[in-house]
Design a protein that fits this description.
By secondary structure, the chain is mostly helical. About 85% of the residues lie in helices and about 0% in strands. Belongs to the peroxisomal membrane protein PXMP2/4 family.
């Protein structure tokens, strides 16, 4: 509980920084889980650079973009009723999620040094399956998130659930 209170104080004092660092940390954790539990690389074969890339993506892309999106979404649909939460989830999953996922996978490919042609081919291969998998998890999570969670905690809640999702995305994005 002391750790949670410290997190709340930091979030209150520096909301943007804490949200971005939370996203980066949990993206990195997702990659560690992917490499160690899914791919079973072992510590000797762990690709530290890959984990650092995921941390960087969390801090430089996921945190700012998703955190900013939640602010925009709250301005577009300011209420907190069940109907408002449903509208937010539909807009999030129907508009934002497909675009965000495509950008994320493309960015990972670019950071991994893929040529534009190879990146496009990988995106065509991975995107449909990743988007379908997204729809198994995120609509329910986001509906609860938009209905039950205050705006300043939404990114943290999503990133905690996303540790497993990030493991999947890291595995999907780094599969050759």
């Amino acid at each position: 509980m002391a750790l949670w209170r410290a997190y709340q104080r930091a979030l209150t004092a520096h909301p943007w920084k804490v949200q971005v660092l939370t996203a980066g940390s949990l993206m990195g954790l997702g990659d560690v889980i992917s490499q160690q539990l899914v791919e079973r690389r072992g510590l000797q074969a762990h690709k530290t650079g890959r984990t650092l890339t995921m941390v960087s993506l969390g801090c430089g892309f996921v945190g700012p973009v998703v955190g900013g999106w939640y602010k925009v979404l709250d301005r577009l649909i300011p209420g907190t009723t069940r109907v408002d939460a449903l509208k937010k989830m539909l807009l999030d999953q129907g508009g934002f999620a497909p675009c965000f996922l495509g950008c994320f996978l493309s960015l990972v490919g670019t950071l991994n040094g893929l040529s534009a042609q190879d990146n496009w081919a990988k995106l065509q291969q991975d995107y449909p399956d990743a988007l379908i998998t997204n729809y198994y998890l995120w609509p329910a999570v986001q509906l609860a998130n938009f209905y039950l969670v205050p705006l300043h905690y939404r990114l943290a809640v999503v990133q905690c659930v996303a540790v497993i999702w990030n493991s999947y995305l890291s595995w999907k994005a780094h599969r050759l």
